[in-house]
Write a structure and sequence with these properties.
With about 110 residues, the chain is an alpha/beta fold. Helix content is about 35%, strand content about 25%.
Length: about 110
């Protein structure tokens, strides 16, 4: 059975190279409210991984935020069968920088 998922962070899902945007803080923030939530990011990435895409691009422009939410995102990227490339779209600070740098490093040498 084919299930369509509502994609909150994904653009161009119908192409061979969808783009996931990490374009605000990660997790919940008292002042700014909800940012990029790790569980939603995980679900979307795992869904895209089942669609036999050529690669998934993750564009990061984030001041960082919750380490726990960021690690959910990090682990999701590491478990995909589809190649995931990360791009810095401006700022990748704190846990967003970890996601940007370490994921790219592990994919390069692994």
């Amino acid at each position: 059975m084919f299930v369509l998922m509502k994609l909150k962070y994904t653009q161009y899902a119908d192409t061979d190279e969808p783009v996931m945007l990490v374009n605000k803080h990660i997790g919940m923030d008292e002042e700014d409210g909800e940012g990029i939530m790790g569980d939603q990011f995980q679900s979307e990435l795992m869904y895209l991984d089942t669609l036999n895409k050529k690669r998934i691009k993750v564009v990061i422009c984030s001041p960082g935020g919750s380490v726990i939410e960021g690690m959910k995102m990090y682990n999701a990227v590491l478990t995909t069968k589809t190649k995931v490339d990360t791009y810095n779209g401006g700022i990748a600070a704190s846990i967003a920088g970890v996601l940007f740098q370490i994921v790219g490093f592990i994919r390069t040498i692994g």
